[in-house]
Design goal:
single chain, mainly beta, six-stranded antiparallel β-sheet, two-stranded antiparallel sheet, 8 strands, 0% helix
């Protein structure tokens, strides 16, 4: 599946469901030579996502539930790391799209 411009959703038009894994288009800004990149990540709505284990960053205490949550914002997922499963994105997320279907795996 090729990624086409029409498949991208501007974040000003619509946000994904909280904690739904999606492709993100990010802009690192002029400090990095107008560098843009794509990553897998999710949006965390305020007071909706519990922090993953070993998280000591980007958390907020909510007195009403006496619990901690991720700060509202965008997070990049990290699948092959023992220390973190996601990191807060400091760059500007401009667009998102649902993840494409995985190819079928043939048994050999």
């Amino acid at each position: 599946m090729l990624l086409e411009k029409k498949d991208w959703i501007n974040i000003t038009d619509k946000l994904p469901k909280s904690e739904q894994y999606v492709l993100l288009a990010c802009d690192a800004g002029k400090a990095y030579g107008n560098y843009r990149y794509i990553c897998i990540g999710f949006y965390a709505k305020r007071y909706s996502v519990y922090p993953p284990p070993y998280t000591d960053f980007g958390i907020e205490y909510f007195e009403e539930t006496d619990d901690y949550y991720l700060l509202e914002g965008w997070y990049e997922t990290i699948k092959n790391c023992d220390d973190y499963s996601c990191l807060y994105i400091n760059d500007v997320v401009t667009h998102w799209m649902p993840l494409p279907e995985l190819p079928e795996q043939k048994d050999e």
